[in-house]
Amino acid sequence: MRIKDIVNRDLVNLTNCEQEPIHIPGSIQPHGFLIGLKLDSFLIDYCSGNTLDFIEASHTMILGKTFEDVFGPEAMKSLLDYITTQQMLSSSLLKMTLLGSEFVCTVHRSGEVYILELEPANPSHRMPNEVYDHTSQFLTYMHSTHSMQDLCSLVAKGTREVTGYDRVMIYRFDSHYNGEVYAESRRDDLEPFLGLHYPHTDIPAQARELYMKNLLRLIADVDYTPVPVFTVDDVPGKNLDLSLSILRSTSPIHVQYLHNMGVGATLTISLIYKQKLWGLIACHHYSPKNLTPEIRRAALLQGHFITSQIGLRQSHAEYEVSRKVNSAFDKIDTFNLSADKESFEEFIRQPELLEICNASGVSLIVDGNVYKHGVEHSDEEVVFLADFLTEHSINTSFSTDKLLNQLPNYKSLCEKTAGLIYHSLDLDSNNCIIWYRPETKSEVLWAGDPSKSIIKDKKGLSPRNSFNLWKEIVDCTSKPWFQSELDATASYAFSLQRQLNMILVMKEEEKYRTLSEMLKEANAELENINWISSHDLQEPLRKLQLISSHLMAEQDLPPHVMHMLTRLNFSAERMQDLLGDILQYTRLKKNDDPFEMLGLQELIQEVSDDEIGSSDLKMNIKIGTLPEIYGVKFLVKQLFANLISNSLKYAKADHTPKIKICSSATPKAFTPHSNALFHVITVQDNGIGFDQEYAESIFNIFTKLHISSEYSGSGMGLALCKKIMQKHNGYIKANSSIGEGTTISLYFPITRNS
């Protein structure tokens, strides 16, 4: 059987230090030993190389054998009971006797392997009641505090009492994972670290990821010599994930970092809040120090206490802010805007508009007008910001406490406004509201130059060795916005948008009301003109006809005079017909005759008989089977009279006019995509026809396609037909070609619609 170690010997350099595989070091710390068992057979597949320091068996002696073969059935039974009763997932520890020695064992699963980490039992460890007393006292202190700062100070003090470390710090991360020593308990002779900041590179991303998985990390002696882990060499590239291991060996860069700080041992406990790494309890000792598993669990409990309180304490800190914000929101939300500028000027000066998010200034842009209060920017700068934020947020919303990050080339502008909240009020314009906060200069105390956290020298890659105080002035940054402030502005922006929409609707209604009044006046004037045209002008036309008729009766008139009088009489007659058609057209919309069920068969027969009786022309009118429709009898008779008259007027010379009136067999839709059905009545003739390109324009008023001298008429007939069909909620259309006759189609609704 071949055996090999799985030590990771990949060199760490500047290109891969942030991807250093710290979860698979292939080695452990020497204060315990490690065994890896296959899940199915409990075969010892991994073993650390220091077993002889704890038991009378080397790793070469036990690799490849089952756990029971090496340690006996009693130990095997204890392990199986521990695993099968789910104790492995609880806080209880497994105590075992292996080859005559007592051990405390932690067990977890890594892939297809059970990992057992065994440390010698310590007869002098603290009794459970002593640990309980510390925890109970801590709970008392916890309930007597209100602020997060006070709670963290108690956690630091309580953890130091339980563990005995020289220094315990509560380390809190910002949004970029830069750390701050938020609370501290230390030996009196040690310099304080409270308030110091550490760059995010001190704890790289892969280390933070492990802190999320494994909540407790112990280094008993930073000067330890790593112990390699061996395995049976039966698979190429074989390795073991030690992410959850207590004994896991540490990154050499981190060990060097601790050396540079003068630290001899550490304990780190993760503080998780809302599934993110909120911070750490970082314990430092300036000489080697190991803790029993029981004390580690007690220290871990301190971390659980603080994480359970983070949300509560942060909520308490924001409660007063939220209460004031909500009060301001309720007051400003009752302000009723109107369309005039004075209303907007009064609105922008309301103090509650600033109080809903504790802003120093606010601006509003509506329809190109800028309204502002407490804002240092000019109108042009406000418009520039609005245009930029509209494009940047795609007409939605945006907030920042450092505007300079978005506008790096406008530092002077960002010095006036370091932070802002923007909300769009219209998807199609730059209408918006913006709240502003000024710059708040602050001094950050770094533990060493943050830009030199990882350095490269002749010895290779190493962490910085200087932790001297490094001061940084943070400018162009405002106080951060609380979530309650962001929520309040979002809610109010929505409310304001509704008000602006209502103002817009009211303005449109007023505009349409004005236009409607103007239209009514214009219609009244037109009706008056029509009345004058159709009545007052009739009298002079009749006189012209009478006088011309008397003159034409005189004898011995010269031929040219007789010709002029004839033309005058004809023109007056045409003008009289035109005025009559205009009067008839304008009366259509005022027609109040009732709709009734009409039998088209009988009605059209009457119209046909009238036309035949009053005309000298020989004609052939054929009427098919026609349906009943709802309509106004007078108007429908006029409709068909106009159509028959039109067919006779435009008949071919030397041809007997033929007119065919029939109905479609079944109702039809006017357009392919319409659900409404109509009776379709067609009036077809054999007249001169017209070019199909004029099929729509012939229904326009005064439209004539033929020379007036050849064909009489005012051009009103088909316009009247269209008006009548509109009165019946129907349609009319024409199909024709020159010399081939014309077909007029009438679409009458099959249901009553008036």
Structure in words:
This protein is α+β, with helices and mostly antiparallel strands. The chain is 38% helix and 23% strand. The strands form seven sheets. Strands 1, 2, 3, 4, 5, 6, 7 and 12 form an eight-stranded antiparallel beta sheet that branches. Strands 10-9-8-14-13-11 form a six-stranded antiparallel beta sheet. α4 packs antiparallel against α5 (148-163), α4 (128-143) packs parallel to α8 and α17 (633-649) runs antiparallel to α18. The longest helix is centred in the last third of the chain and has 54 residues, at 483-536. The protein is elongated. The N and C termini lie far apart (101 Å). 30% of the residues are buried. The mean pLDDT is 83.
What name goes with the CATH superfamily of the domain at 591-749?
Answer: Histidine kinase-like ATPase, C-terminal domain
Oligomer: single chain
The percent of residues in helical segments reads: 25-40%
> Count the strands?
30
Assign the CATH architecture of the domain at 591-749: 2-Layer Sandwich
Structural class of the secondary elements? alpha+beta
Instruction: Report the sheet-strand fraction.
Output: 15-25%
The CATH class of the domain at 591-749 is identified as: Alpha Beta
- State the major sheet: 8 strands, antiparallel
Cα end-to-end separation? 101 Å
Estimated radius of gyration: 49 Å
Low-confidence runs of at least 5 consecutive residues:
none
The geometry reads as elongated
Treating each run of at least 4 consecutive H or I residues as one helix, how many helices?
Answer: 18
Average pLDDT rating: 83
CATH fold-level assignment of the domain at 591-749? Heat Shock Protein 90
